[in-house]
Design brief:
The chain has nine helices and eight strands. The chain is globular.
């Protein structure tokens, strides 16, 4: 019995190693803000516009950048916690969402080198998807405006499922839909939410240090300082 158990364990280990080295990357899931696209200027200016309307002081650039990654409602909440004016949350959120919807692509662009990454992965027939914590209708506007939909099999926002990152649920939905092997897939993002979600889904993770959020609760498998470095890890 012990011998058979050891054999089964050894077989599983060898099988996992075999598949991980013989199958090329099947799926890459990207975060949006701070990973695929530099959206910060449009977010910051929309926030400042809304705060100015209510005579609320706008925190520093670095403070606001650190608030990004958990959806826009939390961005507003964290901003107002700094100014001690949380009671204005609903009014400012409504103002922000209206203004940002109309201006979310004024300055937003792919990070330099990211278009080359997308083209290379597309040529390799790697499935690609976007999973953001930003509301889907805003993600949709940005992906359409930048003419990126042809690259992606799936595009999801923070309200596409009943759970968002760091939950693995959105990622596992994609993995199951495409019948790919998690260990031969990558989650790429610039925050703990992305790394934690990827790890929970059994994926390899790549942290983008050029993004907005330093890691505090997680450790990524790989770290890249610019988008082109992504190609060093995906075969």
């Amino acid at each position: 019995m012990i011998k058979n158990n050891l054999y089964n364990i050894l077989y599983l280990i060898i099988n996992k190693i075999y598949w991980s080295y013989t199958i090329n990357t099947q799926l890459v899931i990207f975060d949006l803000d701070g990973t695929l696209c530099d959206t910060f200027d449009d977010i910051y200016l929309s926030l400042k516009h809304s705060l100015d309307n209510f005579n609320v002081f706008t925190p520093s650039l670095n403070e606001v950048k650190s608030f990004i990654g958990d959806g826009l409602a939390l961005l507003i909440e964290r901003t107002l916690n700094v100014t001690n004016q949380a009671y204005l949350k609903n009014d400012i959120l409504a103002s922000f969402m209206q203004y940002y919807k109309e201006h979310c692509t004024d300055s937003t662009l792919l990070f330099p080198g990211m278009e080359n990454v997308l083209k290379e992965l597309y040529k390799k027939n790697v499935y690609m998807a976007v999973v953001s914590n930003k509301a889907y209708h805003l993600v949709d506007i940005i992906i359409k405006e930048l003419d990126l939909y042809d690259y992606f099999k799936f595009v999801y926002g923070g309200d596409s499922f009943d759970e968002k990152k760091p939950s693995a649920k959105p990622l596992l939905n994609i993995i199951n839909s495409l019948s790919v092997i998690p260990d031969n897939s990558f989650m790429i993002g610039d925050s703990d939410n992305d790394v934690l979600a990827g790890a929970a889904a059994g994926m390899k993770t790549i942290y983008c240090s050029y993004g907005y959020s330093p890691l505090k609760k997680s450790t990524s498998d790989y770290i890249v300082d610019n988008p082109l470095d992504i190609l060093n890890f995906i075969r």
